[in-house]
Amino acid sequence: MSHTTILCATDLAASGDAALHLATLMAKATKKKLVLLHAMEIEGRVDLDSLDPSVVPAAKAFEVRVASRMASHSAALDAAAATALSEGVPVEVSVEEGRPWETILDAAARYDVGLVVLGDHVSEGGLGDRIGERLLGSTAERVVRHASSPVLVARGSIPESIEGATWLVAVDFSDESRVAVREAERMARVSGGTLLLVHVVPEAYDAESMSEEWKQIRAVFTEEAQGKLDALGSELRLGVKVATEVGHGNASEVLTQLAAERDASFLVVGTRGQGRLASLLLGSTAERVLDRSPVPVLLTRRDMEAGLAFEPAVNRE
To answer: Which of 154, 181, 206 is the C-terminal boundary of a domain?
Structure first.
């Protein structure tokens, strides 16, 4: 399926500003429409007809406050959308009531969404309201588990442009990581960027206590991994610049460290699918990368549909 829309979920706070900036960059580069969504989780609503007459005035006053709050948030969302509009990106805005992760998934199903962009945390009251504030980790995990498109989490250092960006992709040669490579290739193509394919060989010992036997085994693992990375890189279509690297140690630590050292703009990680175990966990490496990454993280899942449909904006031939 060809998708034509990017969905950006914002809490109208600093996290949402970062997500909007990143979503605008992606929409401009891919020439796609941007849907800007704000979710309000409102507790305490009741059916007025079911209430005792003595409490109806208070309930009505509550509804008036809710309506005023939604109007205020709608105005703030319109102001946020002006930033994208000034960049020539077509924007649609929507303020909706509900739990953020459910509202995001519902909106993604209604629109022709090929990419969901989120901030690194969410304040469910919006506009900096700390009542009910939760880390986006739980929201992002739920969205990634169930979304039919890749999810980009705006965290760490947000690039000013994606032109020439380096997309560092975690590769463990599983089906999940091959999907991650596929999506990163598409993004690198549209941004005129580079794919950096990284495989991490676990360390059995620290450097000082490493035995000669393990050093030999490590060298074999490293050579095999490098050969597989080179073969994977050769499978990619012409016109995409590809680099490869084998790291050693804890996967999430190595990936986040290399993202900083290699000046990557994005870190791309494949996650588990929608099986019973996967419904509880993203996968330890993906979870830790999402928590520690110094740059935005693109999360993909094996059973996701292909992401955005686009033609390259830059000719690299």
So the answer is: 154
